[in-house]
Amino acid sequence: MPTNLPPIYYEIEAQYREATDSQEKIALLEEMFSVVPKHKGTDHLRADLRRRLAKLRTTAKTPSAASKQASVFNIDPEGAGQIAIIGMPNVGKSALVAALTHAAPESAPYPFTTWTPTPGMMPIDNVQVQIIDTPPLNREHVEPELFNLIRRAELLIIVIDIQGYPIDQLEEAIDILLENRIVAAGHEDMYTGSRIPAVKPVLVLANKCDDPSCDEDFAVLCELVDEDWTLLPISAATGRHFDALKRTVFEHLEIIRVYAKPPGKEPDFSRPFVLKRGATVEEFAGKVHQDFLTQLKTARVWGSTEHDGLMVSRDYVLHDGDVVELRA
To answer: Domain residues for 173?
Structure first.
């Protein structure tokens, strides 16, 4: 029976055969699987794709495979979220990462200083998020693994230079992302390709807004930018508006902090459990200890409930700052 595969399948298959990175191969196999039509003629092909996916995922997790296929672009997520800092050359990405974290990416006043990604941890109150300085976007030298890293990130921060040509920088960065099947959430209509894109929340930082004299330039930038982007002024040199940046990052990651209260004791507010917005008591209980998933008898919540210490059900939706007491 004919498979009647769409042309896009063969495009993805050709890219899969050229791929060398295991994570890229996994992503391409998943995409191949998603475009295969479901009928009897494709049963064997779909089963073969499943087998290859399972084998690749297992291999990628083994220590021997990790040592053989180690890549500087394969950065394990840490903290409450993984953020990729991206942008055109010489916009101040590395200086920003160095100012926000203890990382020390190479930084200089000339372009193309950064050739490999550098991760660092940025504190936001009592949680840490991972931000990764990346090589500059550049059409002349496209590193496929860079875009795989960007696709895996939970949030993208595009840095532009308010003292340069910020609109051109933003438009070119967006165009390069679109050419590599990465589209900003809320701007899906900008993507015209036939393959499935990665949709990512995007925050745009106008760097080098070092003092109030730059505020007028930023206001003009906001008026001239065509699309509805989340724009923030920032200064890697002076730390201006870092607090606003951290609040915005926290909101874009859509996370909440929940604190465990052992029965008869006070909660430890220095060690929150980080959950996705909309998480329930049951999900929180599973994070505290897997045994709670089957043995949980009661849960009380302080914070978002009508009364402090109110007993709630497993499906109660928690909010940022809630305190929860679990009893088995």
So the answer is: 82-253
